[in-house]
Amino acid sequence: MKLTFQGRRALLLGGSCDLGLALIPLLDAEGLEVFATAASTPGRARLAALLPPERIYTVHLGEAASVSALAENPPLVDY
What we know:
The chain is α/β, with parallel strands linked by helices and 79 residues long. Helix content is 37%, strand content 16%.
């Protein structure tokens, strides 16, 4: 699938789920630098197979404090 993006960097929330893991190589193939979130150590391990550690964030999407922490110090992304 050929997609057109204006920016070069994307944040994928819930990146360690099966859908997120499937999207990472597709977005990478489109030329995007992907940053992703995981809520657990096993989730981070799943992401580590695809991304360098500096692009993996621990975020519990169901916890307001965790989401706020990401919002206060987000990666520099376009999407």
